[in-house]
Design goal:
The structure is a single chain. By secondary structure, this protein is α+β, with helices and mostly antiparallel strands. The protein folds into two domains: 3-98, SH3 type barrels, CATH 2.30.30; 115-230, no CATH class. Helix content is 34%, strand content 27%. Strands 4-3-2-1-5 form a five-stranded antiparallel sheet. Strands 6-7-9-8 form a four-stranded mixed sheet, with helices on one face. Strand 1 and strand 2 form a beta hairpin.
Length: 232
């Protein structure tokens, strides 16, 4: 990101910054080489804390920062209610998230899957569903794509599979949820649009994810889990 691009970034409240950082972490957790922003948080009279953003527990309003030295971890748990400022660095990759839609997302050429690779990723996700649901059959997954998907479309289609997988895995952590999903859903289709919705018609579930402001408006795995559970 150059200086001119940085000038497009708007000021945002700390609550929104935490939400964006949590989105980034949820995307990076499954990566072999997670690329997580470094932050410095000023927490009132307690002073400031620096480290990699690890997690934000919305219910307990607790932020977790972590550092890694000589194969040993250092953890800082911060009460969100004491936060007065947040400094973010090493986040060029996710500048578009901090831009409120002003900076378009463009995937790196090496990150764009071929249609064959995307089909393989869908098959892998189907197998993950099968294992999590403990069923003998596949839950068919289908990407409802446009006639000529762009490189960005294909990137989103592959990356969103992780969100779907994490949401279904979380549902399956509860036996009642696992049984309800296994009984109700035989096919799961997903597409991108201007709103976030989940509908169930017969045994087919359709997930629509909003790309109105890049990844900023796509539901997290936790949000998607809640939306799916309401349909079961």
């Amino acid at each position: 990101m150059d200086f001119k691009t940085m000038l497009q970034l708007p000021a945002m409240p700390t609550a929104k910054i935490i939400e964006i950082l949590q989105q980034i972490v949820e995307k990076e957790r499954s990566s072999d080489n997670p690329d997580i922003p470094q932050v410095r948080i000023t927490a009132g009279a307690s002073g400031s804390y620096a480290g990699y953003f690890i997690d934000y527990n919305k219910n307990d309003r607790t932020i977790l920062l972590g550092n890694w030295f000589d194969n040993q971890f250092e953890l800082n748990y911060i009460d969100y209610g004491t936060v007065t400022g947040i400094s973010v660095s090493r986040a060029n990759k996710y500048a578009y998230l901090f831009s409120n839609g002003k900076i378009p997302f463009v995937p790196a050429a090496g990150d764009v899957p071929t249609m064959l690779k995307l089909k393989e990723a869908i098959k892998d996700t189907q197998m993950a569903f099968k294992i999590a649901l403990k069923v003998p059959h596949d839950v068919i997954i289908e990407w409802n794509k446009s006639e000529e998907p762009t490189d960005t479309d294909k990137y989103y289609a592959k990356e969103f599979l992780n969100t779907l997988k994490n949401a279904v895995t979380a549902i399956c952590a509860d036996n009642l949820g696992r049984e309800a999903f296994a009984e109700s859903v035989k096919k799961l289709a997903y597409k991108f649009g201007t709103e976030n919705t989940v509908t169930l018609n017969g045994d087919e579930m359709l997930v629509t994810a909003s790309l109105e402001r890049n990844w900023q408006t796509i539901p997290s795995a936790t949000m998607l889990q809640e939306m799916m559970e309401k349909c079961l």
